[in-house]
Every structure is written in C-alpha cells, then in structure tokens.
Write a structure and sequence with these properties.
Length: about 170
C-alpha cells in the first residue's frame, strides 16, 4: 500500500510510511496514477445512477489489521455507517442480522473498528449526495481471515455474498 484510496488529501495517513520516503513529485504521481482515477470512477458511477433517479448503495470493502499499536482488535467484521443517516443504519442492521445468521461464530460490530463518520470516501460523498438517495457503507474485514487458511477465507467470502444478497432482499 503506497496511497490509501479511501483517505482524503488532507489525511495524515494518505500515504504509507514507504511512500512518505518518496520525493513529493513521486507522491504526486501516485495520486495521479491511482488515487484520482479511482475517486473519479466511483464518483462518476454514483452520479450516473443518481441522475437516473435511483437510490444508490455504495458498498466499500476494506480490511483492517488484527493488532493496532499493540492492542488486539476483537471485531471480525465491522459495518461502518453514519448514525445520522437512517437508511444507512437500517441497511447495516439488516446486513448484520444476515451475517450473524450465516456466521454465528463471528463478532459483527457496528461502527467498529472505526467510526462510520471518520475520514473516508463515503464521508466525502455524503457531503455531496442527497441523504435520502446515497447510502455510504464501509465493510471492514479483519485481515486475519485473508492471511489464514485459504478454504476458510473463500467460505467467508461466500457467506458475506449471501448475507449481502439477504440484506438487499435478493434471496
């Protein structure tokens, strides 16, 4: 990871410790090559759907480190949303219920391991798009699953897909 596509330009964590060693010109090239095209593509796709009168669910998938600054994080899956946006909260409750039904052994937390309103692309877009038609959800998975047994990771991915279909009413 050299540049975090989910962070704003003002974020102190926009660049990784490796990228911070680069010259400013090289960091600007990273932004031009990765950050700007990604942000533009997401914004364009959302605008296209919103212009056609649709309600849009922006489901942004991320992973998080199991340990941060020496503290073990107990969350297995985190659903991040803005509590001031009722549609986001309702959707996350439905998704959490579906995940818990399919994955009862896992700890599914709301607005953990991060706040649903911290610096991120969904937070930026919430300021741009209508509250009643844009739902910005961040889905966080503990990296221990991706780093673990491959078959278990694949099974988890399938269960997440099924839970998402249930939460969307596509069962």
């Amino acid at each position: 990871l050299l540049v975090d596509l989910n962070r704003s330009l003002q974020s102190p964590t926009l660049f990784s410790k490796y990228a911070l060693r680069l010259e400013e010109k090289e960091r600007l090239e990273l932004l031009a090559r990765y950050w700007e095209p990604y942000r533009h593509a997401v914004r364009h796709a959302l605008l296209e759907r919103l212009e056609h009168g649709r309600t849009v669910l922006h489901f942004s998938v991320h992973s998080f480190t199991p340990k941060l600054r020496g503290d073990t994080r107990r969350t297995d899956i985190g659903l991040l949303f803005d509590p001031a946006r009722p549609k986001e909260a309702v959707f996350c409750r439905r998704l959490r219920a579906a995940l818990q039904k399919l994955l009862p052994e896992l700890r599914i937390d709301m607005n953990e391991p991060y706040s649903g309103v911290s610096d991120g692309l969904t937070s930026t877009l919430r300021a741009e798009f209508p509250k009643n038609r844009y739902l910005g959800i961040e889905f966080e998975v503990n990296q221990r699953f991706a780093r673990g047994e491959r078959a278990r990771w694949r099974a988890l991915q399938r269960s997440i897909q099924q839970a998402l279909a249930l939460a969307l009413g596509r069962n």
